[in-house]
Amino acid sequence: xxxxxxxxxxxxxxxxxxxxxxxxxxxxxxxxxxxxxxxxxxxxxxxxxxxxxxxxxxxxxxxxxxxxxxxxxxxxxxxxxxxxxxxxxxxxxxxxxxxxxxxxxxxxxxxxxxxxxxxxxxxxxxxxxxxxxxxxxxxxxxxxxxxxxxxxxxxxxxxxxxxxxxxxxxxxxxxxxxxxxxxxxxxxxxxxxxxxxxxxxxxxxxxxxxxxxxxxxxxxxxxx
Length: 224
Fold this sequence. Notes:
Elements: E1 2-6, H1 11-20, E2 25-30, H2 33-50, E3 57-62, H3 63-69, E4 72-75, H4 82-88, E5 98-101, E6 106-109, E7 112-115, E8 118-120, E9 123-125, H5 127-135, E10 140-143, H6 150-154, E11 162-167, H7 170-180, E12 186-192, H8 197-213
Parallel strand pairs: 1-2, 1-4, 2-3, 4-5, 5-10, 11-12
Antiparallel strand pairs: 6-7, 8-9
Helix pairs in contact: 1-2, 4-5
């Protein structure tokens, strides 16, 4: 499958791009095509050095072109830039794309991580709900991957062992989990409709508060 990763410069974008390239054709998107091409070349070198086999590919182009040619679009966008990105991408060919949102917004103040939902017409929305509201139908938005430690995902020698709740339309969640299943060490669990995203996103600052106070490092989720 062709998978677009938008905003893939951080640990999360790097890790998911390289790990998906084992099987899928990954297109890195950026506002600037040259930057995306440079990232793709760098990630491909790392992939070939670390992975035993690569059946997919890594390439780079503009955000708009990446969206137009991909079936699954991953919005690996910094939460602080999400609203401006959605404003600037309103004319993209979102069509009936699958859109995976790993975004969650929180702040750190006085030693405490606090979840910060988005606001729209006096209503609180999760990042995934905001994306769905802006993209409208027929785009299928799925929320997930917020609770996978980005540093572990980017460390290609790291053995993952996490559960990944997904929420959104059930069929879309099944298709997304089918694409991501090539990432070893992740178990995908259907959590319910997109409204559940609020709870999933709010879980990350809770986990960070617990981790900091108990010297746990970067936390992940495992349901037992």
